[in-house]
Amino acid sequence: xxxxxxxxxxxxxxxxxxxxxxxxxxxxxxxxxxxxxxxxxxxxxxxxxxxxxxxxxxxxxxxxxxxxxxxxxxxxxxxxxxxxxxxxxxxxxxxxxxxxxxxxxxxxxxxxxxxxxxxxxxxxxxxxxxxxxxxxxxxxxxxxxxxxxxxxxxxxxxxxxxxxxxxxxxxxxxxxxxxxxxxxxxxxxxxxxxxxxxxxxxxxxxxxxxxxxxxxxxxxxxxxxxxxxxxxxxxxxxxxxxxxxxxxxxxxxxxxxxxxxxxxxxxxxxxxxxxxxxxxxxxxxxxxxxxxxxxxxxxxxxxxxx
Amino acid sequence: xxxxxxxxxxxxxxxxxxxxxxxxxxxxxxxxxxxxxxxxxxxxxxxxxxxxxxxxxxxxxxxxxxxxxxxxxxxxxxxxxxxxxxxxxxxxxxxxxxxxxxxxxxxxxxxxxxxxxxxxxxxxxxxxxxxxxxxxxxxxxxxxxxxxxxxxxxxxxxxxxxxxxxxxxxxxxxxxxxxxxxxxxxxxxxxxxxxxxxxxxxxxxxxxxxxxxxxxxxxxxxxxxxxxxxxxxxxxxxxxxxxxxxxxxxxxxxxxxxxxxxxxxxxxxxxxxxxxxxxxxxxxxxxxxxxxxxxxxxxxxxxxxxxxxxxxxxxxxxxxxxxxxxxxxxxxxxxxxxxxxxxxxxxxxxxxxxxxxxxxxxxx
Lengths: 306, 364
Fold this sequence. Notes:
Chain A is globular. The longest helix of chain A is centred in the N-terminal third of the chain and has 28 residues, at 3-30. Chain A is 72% helix and 1% strand. With 306 residues, chain A is an all-alpha fold. Chain A has a single domain (3-293), classed as Orthogonal Bundle (ABC transporter involved in vitamin B12 uptake, BtuC). In chain A, α2 packs parallel to α4 and α2 (38-56) packs across α9 (183-209). In chain B, 51% of the residues are buried. A two-stranded antiparallel sheet of chain B has the order 1-2. Chain B contains 14 helices and two strands; from the N terminus they run βαααααααααααααβα. Chain B has two domains: 1-40 and 321-364, no CATH class; 67-312, Orthogonal Bundle (ABC transporter involved in vitamin B12 uptake, BtuC), CATH 1.10.3470. The longest helix of chain B has 28 residues, at 242-269. With 364 residues, chain B is mostly helical. Chain B starts with a strand and ends with a helix. At the A-B interface, α3, α4, α10, α12 and α13 of A face β1, α6, α11 and α13 of B.
C-alpha cells in the first residue's frame, strides 16, 4: 500500500465518526430540535461499545451496545426538552456534562485494557479494484453504515412523505400541528435517531479509530459534528464532504507531528478546533443565506394547546 | 398515562423558590440509588459526600476556595444567559485570564513591588475579556454561533497553556517538570482569615455577586439585559442594541472568568501547571442555573457545587468510590434543575389515555 493510500485511509477513519454524529444531529435539527448533547451521547456510545465488546468478546455486540446507549441517552434529552419543554441549549449542555461524568465512572474498570478491533469486511470483486478497492471496499461495517445512513437520510428527507412531515415540523411546528402531524412524536423519533447515530459514532472511536477506552476520548468531536451540520447547511451529502475535510485536517496535524516540522505539537493539535471556527465564520457571515437554510423552528419549544 | 403541561396564568412564585431545592433533593435520592447500585451503603456514602466535608474548619476553607471561582464565573454567565448570549467557553477564559495575569510573576519574576498583585488581577481580567471578545466579535459582526466558537476556544486555551508551561515558561530550575516558577511573595493573593487557606478570591466572588445583583435590580443596564434576553424585538423598540449587549455580556463574563483564573492561580496554586482547573468553567454553568440566574442564588449554588468537588474526594478516601462520582452528581443536578424549572411556568398533569380521548371528544 502506498503512502497516499495510507493517508487517505486514515482520513476516512478519522472522518467517519464526524459524518455519523453530524448526520444524526442533522435529522434532529431538521425536526427543529437543537441537541447540544452530541458529545455526551458519543462518549456514552464509546464507553458502552467498549465495555460490551470486552464482556461479550464480539465487537458487533459492542456496536449494538453503542447505538443503544446513544439512543437511550438521547431519550433523557427528549423527555426534558419535548415533554417538559426545558431550555434546549441548557439541556444539551447538561447531557454532555452528564455523559462525560457517567462514562468516566463506567469506564474506570476498563482503562488500559487491550481493545478488540472491528475487523474490515472485504467486498468481493470491488475490493480488488486497484486504489479504490482497498480504500472504500475493504472497510469496517461502521464505515459502510455511515454511507448508507447518509444516503438513507437524503432519501427519507427529500423523497418520502414522512420526511416531508419531519421538515414541516422543523420549519413551522404550529402549521404542522394544525395539519394533524404529531409534532412531539416526530421530534422524539428524530432525537432518538440522532442519539443512535452519535452512539454509533462513539462505538467507531472505541472499536475502530483507537480500539481502547480513554477518558474523554471524544475530545470535542461531538461539538465539531454540531459545527458540521451548520457547515453542511442542513443537507446530508454536504455532511460527508465536510466530515472528510475535517478528517483531513485532523490527520494532517498528526502527520505533521510525525514529520517533526518545527511547529510545537500543541499548535498542531489545536488545528481542528481553529479550523472549525474558521469554517463557521465563512459559512455564517452571510446572514441571509443562514436564515434561508436554518430550519425556522430550530430550538423553539412547542407546547400543543389543548 | 401521558404527561400534559398546562401553562400557569402567572409565573409561580412558590416554585421559583422551591425548584432548586426539589432538584437538590432529587439529586440526593438518585445519588443514594446510585451508591446502592455500586454496592455501598447509601446513607453512609451520602454522609461522607455531603456532610463530612462540612465538619471541619480546614475543609470549610477548601469549600470557600473551590466556591470562589464557581461563583465568580457563574455570576458572569448569569448576565450572558439572561441576555440570551450562550457563552459556554468560560473554562477557556479562566485559563487565558490565569495566563495573562501570570505574565508579571513568571516573566518579570525578579520585579518586586506592592503594585504587582493589583496589576496581575487587572491583567487577568483583561486576558479573560479579550479571549471572550473573539466569540463576541464573531457573533456580533460575523453572525457566527457563539456556543460553538466559545467552546472550540476552550481547547485552544488548554493547548496554549500546555505549550507555555512545557515550553517557554517552564521553570529553568524545575528539574524539567512542566510547571512555571512559583510566584514571589508579592504575587500571591493573601489569605482572608487567620483560621485557614481561604484567599481573597472568595471576597471578590461575593462582591461581584452583590454588584451584579444591584445592577440587575436597580439599573437601566440590568433592565436592558432582561428585556433583550426575553425579546430582542421588544428591546429594539426600546432603543436597546442587541449587538452592544453581545459585547457587554461576553466581555463582562470573560473578565470575571479571567479574574477567577488569576485568583485561583495566585491564591491557591501559586504557579502555572498544564491543568489548573477541574472544569470550573463548565461547572459554573450548572451553578448559574441552580442559582436560577440570580446572583444571590448563585452564591448558594456555588457553595453547593463546591461541596460536590470536596464530597467526591472525601467519598473516595472514606468509602472507596471513584471521584468521578462528582461529575455524575453535577450532571444530575443540572438535569433536575432544568426539569424542575418547568414547574414554574406549567402545571404538570398525568392524564390517562381514555380520559384524554373523552375530553377531546367533548371539545368537538
